[in-house]
Amino acid sequence: MKIRKDAFAPKPPMGWNSWDCYMSTVNEAQLLENARWQAEHLLPFGWEYCVCDIQWYEPTAGTKPGMEYIPFARLNMDEYGRLLPAENRFPSSAGGRGFAPIAEQIHGLGLKFGIHIMRGIPKQAVFARTKVKGTDATADQIADPNSICLWNSDMFGVRKGLAASQAYYDSLFELYAGWGVDYVKVDDIAHTGPAESGGYDAAHEIEMIRRAIDKCGRAIVLSLSPGPAQIGKAWHLSQNANLWRMTNDFWDSWPQLKKMFGYCELWQTHVRPGCWPDCDMLPLGRIGVAFGHGRTTNFTPAEQKTMMTLWAIFRSPLMLGAELMSLDDATLALLTNEKVLAVNQNGANPRQIARDDGHAVWVSENEDGSVNVALFNLGDEAREVGFDFAEIGWDEAACDELWTGEGLAGARISAKIEPHGAEIWHCERMA
Amino acid sequence: MKIRKDAFAPKPPMGWNSWDCYMSTVNEAQLLENARWQAEHLLPFGWEYCVCDIQWYEPTAGTKPGMEYIPFARLNMDEYGRLLPAENRFPSSAGGRGFAPIAEQIHGLGLKFGIHIMRGIPKQAVFARTKVKGTDATADQIADPNSICLWNSDMFGVRKGLAASQAYYDSLFELYAGWGVDYVKVDDIAHTGPAESGGYDAAHEIEMIRRAIDKCGRAIVLSLSPGPAQIGKAWHLSQNANLWRMTNDFWDSWPQLKKMFGYCELWQTHVRPGCWPDCDMLPLGRIGVAFGHGRTTNFTPAEQKTMMTLWAIFRSPLMLGAELMSLDDATLALLTNEKVLAVNQNGANPRQIARDDGHAVWVSENEDGSVNVALFNLGDEAREVGFDFAEIGWDEAACDELWTGEGLAGARISAKIEPHGAEIWHCERMA
Amino acid sequence: MKIRKDAFAPKPPMGWNSWDCYMSTVNEAQLLENARWQAEHLLPFGWEYCVCDIQWYEPTAGTKPGMEYIPFARLNMDEYGRLLPAENRFPSSAGGRGFAPIAEQIHGLGLKFGIHIMRGIPKQAVFARTKVKGTDATADQIADPNSICLWNSDMFGVRKGLAASQAYYDSLFELYAGWGVDYVKVDDIAHTGPAESGGYDAAHEIEMIRRAIDKCGRAIVLSLSPGPAQIGKAWHLSQNANLWRMTNDFWDSWPQLKKMFGYCELWQTHVRPGCWPDCDMLPLGRIGVAFGHGRTTNFTPAEQKTMMTLWAIFRSPLMLGAELMSLDDATLALLTNEKVLAVNQNGANPRQIARDDGHAVWVSENEDGSVNVALFNLGDEAREVGFDFAEIGWDEAACDELWTGEGLAGARISAKIEPHGAEIWHCERMA
Amino acid sequence: MKIRKDAFAPKPPMGWNSWDCYMSTVNEAQLLENARWQAEHLLPFGWEYCVCDIQWYEPTAGTKPGMEYIPFARLNMDEYGRLLPAENRFPSSAGGRGFAPIAEQIHGLGLKFGIHIMRGIPKQAVFARTKVKGTDATADQIADPNSICLWNSDMFGVRKGLAASQAYYDSLFELYAGWGVDYVKVDDIAHTGPAESGGYDAAHEIEMIRRAIDKCGRAIVLSLSPGPAQIGKAWHLSQNANLWRMTNDFWDSWPQLKKMFGYCELWQTHVRPGCWPDCDMLPLGRIGVAFGHGRTTNFTPAEQKTMMTLWAIFRSPLMLGAELMSLDDATLALLTNEKVLAVNQNGANPRQIARDDGHAVWVSENEDGSVNVALFNLGDEAREVGFDFAEIGWDEAACDELWTGEGLAGARISAKIEPHGAEIWHCERMA
Known about the structure:
Four copies of one chain form a homotetramer.
Chain A lengths: L13 E4 L1 H4 L5 H14 L7 E4 L47 H9 L3 E7 L2 E2 H6 L10 H4 E6 L6 E4 L4 H17 L3 E5 L15 H14 L4 E4 L9 H7 L2 E3 L8 H14 L8 E3 L3 E2 L2 E2 L7 E2 L4 H14 L3 E4 L7 H7 L2 H9 L1 E8 L3 E7 L5 E7 L5 E6 L7 E6 L5 E4 L1 E6 L4 E9 L1
Parallel strand pairs in A: 1-2, 1-14, 2-3, 3-7, 7-8, 8-9, 9-10, 11-14
Antiparallel strand pairs in A: 4-6, 5-6, 12-13, 15-16, 16-17, 17-22, 18-21, 19-20, 19-22
């Protein structure tokens, strides 16, 4: 039976990811501690995925100051060139058990479990000439020496058009399904595009991964990184993936946040069940703990609200990047506003109404005929931002602001908004 | 009262345009002869616009062999630098009446009337230093010397941010509204994009034209040419225009037609009432009469059907480029298939289901829950192309092919299609 | 008899140019006042050309604050579309005498006379449809509407391959030869190159100008501007011009001066009699008088010496851009060091010996077997820069520094040089 | 004592190279058989280098049909990651003797011996973590994972700025000097340039190789491949290398030969003793023996003469790519015309006099004051090509054509030349 990819991510996935906090160094204890906190405080609001990000197979990750990735590091690998958790970092994986024990614990908390992988096959497997499971081929025969990642030296891409290439990806997802993985974030794969702008062509690997998931018997959500994905590939991405990143890595910087409005404008017509253009993780609370980048998010409260509002109205996946145990109340409140989360999960047909250098307005629709209107001040001074209901053919509406509960009625909503700030209104048509 | 642009092109505009046949040389007699034929034979099927294309203001157009445009030709112009029909070619325009008499005749036939303009202000006006109507400014003050069209020397673009620039465009549309124009095709304006690929930035002129229409008191449909429009500008285009060209000029060549499938893939999520990504005119029947390019379309019957089917399912505007009086019965049948035209006018949510070098499949939806399925053979050999209703969650369907009337029922439609050919099926779900 | 272009600029031309001081506003009084000062104080050292730069045909130049060039300004033009000096600015040109009276005065001072022109034909001539002298053609027939200058709206380039285009350029140089012009700086012509980097193809205009000079009966030195000229066009430039600019406009900024070392590295093998890659004018003393940019050069004394040393050893043309009457003694000394000027005029085979971000060394050769060695400190701290005579196969040399007269002997010259400073040594081999 | 690179290639190197004939499969028997023939028939005319080209360290080269390079092949390598001849192909290298025995034999024939290497360090050494000789570093520490060759998977480039990187190159040239190597052709290194056109930055590796040669105690000629080298790097190349390729691989195709005239125009000012822009090998006689590409050169006799004439007048290195044992008399005559070879070895100041799509003229100078004039017909029809001695300031000359011996005197040489053909004249000034 064919797995229908759009069926198992009908709403934007919500969860936590280890990257923003632990980067390439996360270990079993950290993962599980966060998972327990997540299950207790965030899961009730829908934050269900717990995702272990990059380099879990690298025993020495984090041992060299300033080096997120150690070139040509020795990786933990099975006889088929498939990477396994580094046992010194993930002790429960010992004895070839992989991530199964951790997945089991996380599932026991009511969460879903995700992992990160790099596209391709380890260079180490190529030079060890490991077998491709279920074939007579060896790793060197399916690796493409020219398909490399510019920021991590672990892998070669696999060749196009070879049955053994597909067999290799099938063997990966067979393994992950066996572990109980629910979500895979594949990296170095979404920035397809012209070589002159640093892009590469990994379209065939995206397709192979799609087919491997369809065969693996488990509904594994497929997330592609990093961006910028190319808008010209939108149809291909929507056929094969559940999430794809619109930008390169997003961090806690206002210029990056402001630029995200442009990406949301660009991709807005591609948002639909099973297909979620991705604004990337939410760098909130305490982040960057690894490699001495530790800090509380640089985003001001206004900017945090703007980020949550944009991610909500656009229907971006919501993946939190924070050290959960130290989350303060204000941040927690931001993440657990049920009305705002409902906009993200249920608001249909999100679309930009206006945007210039100083402001933006977005609208989405609810099933009951009401609409959500988000107002953004993108400038450095407080200013009025408004929306006329005539734009959607209404005379007047009754409105509630979802962050503050403030109410308002009339032919227009309008607010004086703080610099870099936002409001989001739930509006019902008045007869 | 604001004119709501999306309201007055709720369905893809259908009509006839003088370019493919008469190019830059069309005259009043030709225009009216075609209009009368259109009113009699095509209007009953929805073909309502009659559009006079480029260079109607150029008295000597067509007098130099092989030159569609004569560099620095003297243009017929009023005291405000506004171009007027060349009286030798459009006699009814004499005495400053412009296109009003022709518009009146065309309206009298039950048709709507459209004209073509180039963006910008005539260079001739700049060197004559004509007044900008309603201002103290002169043409040289609003012209941008660096904003030129690479294939026609008539105009300079107008400067950004000047009130007099807006006033100039306002004066144009005031004139056109006074004539009774219903549709304006603005040229040299849609291929915004990076200069290195021949693009230019005319976004401010698009906005000025939008505002000028909104003020002019007449619901003038706005069509932008030529393409390729940039997908990154999709939101801007959809805010300001009713139609915009996805490609450079489309002619009767199979490689161009095959490439159109790629453009339709790219723009499919932007098709909606009032916003019509444009596949360009249909070069059918007798075309290229001017400049000795006269011929019957190079498209084979199979290719003609493919073109009509793609334009229909994608919901492209349908603008016919043919000498109407000599249309043969087969072509007329192609243009007057009411079921196919209904797909174009009413089929919602058109989307590509599959495409590779050899075939393509598209689907759109009807209000009654039935769907339209178009199957295309893009290869040079006959081949099977099919569609499984499981793709849309149906078990079985009862189907009729709209060109042939053939019927079929089951879990899949499948057909052996001739090279470059197409079929389009109307499908009802079976319980 | 063919004029041999390489014969009449056997050494790098030296002179004065009005641009750096008066920009587009220079007038007859200013030109002649500077010429008189030049004849008295600089001519004895070889500074012989006096060049009137851009816009001398524009009566209103300088009348709008901040606008060096007024778009679509009305130009003073003869019946053949040839520009004439604006009589309000150059009174002696009245009565159709053009620059002849001024040339005569300048020649009387012992100087040579140069003018600036833009390539192409005035747009104003095109719309006035002036005759091309000696032909039946009119300006609109030879103008290329797509060949425009991006920073000045006066001209269209002329079309390739037309006899009337050549006739137009012939008519220009016939006029200039008649006035007694010795040097023409043609602008908007040397930055041939790919359109995506702002270049254009004016190669045919360069060739037409070459032919026009060869026919005009007067040895007019041809200087092409602005750069950057493309190194891939070096052979074409050397066949047609005497000087061509390696860079865009050079002003009194250290980063620009430092970058010039890269251009000199690039072009060093193309320096030879009649062919002078051009570092551009020397912005010394009082400059920028027009448009309120008036200042004394921003170059420090060290930087001034570095500039003169580089221009000298590389054999750049030396065109002074200063208000001569207010030159101070230090600047005058810099410009009249006969030994340094001799390196410029006579040093053969200039070549870069070493260069990195912090220093550079150049060598050239004298007829008597001695060499010139220039040492440059390109860094922001004082540092040692040296040269081993073993590099040129010598054991030891006896040396004199040309700016200070300091002496030194040995296997190496080495000096502690001030930041941004330079030394230049004359070195004789020791037996 | 510093080795002066320009001193040991004072004239364009001449020799034979195994590539054009044997490609990646050459073996000891083939190499020596050709060397013996070369010594007997070609060495007397100056053809002194015998060069073993790529993949001599690859035991399985040539065993897979159509694959010049087998991805991730196992290479023969010493404990320091230095590649050694494959013993199955070069039996005399057994026992760690490397190329020393072959070099000894070739030297015994009176020839000089050259080898080919790829820049960088074997990937195989990286994953085996071999020591870098004379250091504590291992291969993985000096390899740059992003510096790869796009057409051969053997190597990673080495990192910039590390002492161990230099030590690695030093260890290579210590080995080669010990073997008796006289000439090294380094590949994947000369096409420095922008990434978007397939270039890469290997400037630091060129510098490291220069230093390694300077230290190795042997005058090893350094040849860099493949092109196109970037003209903007001319100074850097001339400081570090003796030869560098102006183009990508040159084969026996007229369009490639015609394009070479453009490259020669571009690089002509950089030809001087020790610095030889390289037109690449001469694909003459029987070539392409490996991989089933075997053929007699596709060049017609006229084209062969054109090639030899251009290589001669331009002073390109002359490296023959042919199966020597089967050379026919006509080809041998082409290669042993002493007068033509003398132009290559001694003609000073080669320069292009004229070139357009149909013809080219070049001149160079002899020590006795005579000149060489090459006339080329680049078109597809016979045509006259000529040269006026007035171009070089002579009245008349007495001339001999070097291929035919034909004589001629006058103010001009002029000849009707066959399509794609050439003549080369030795000309003495007449009083």
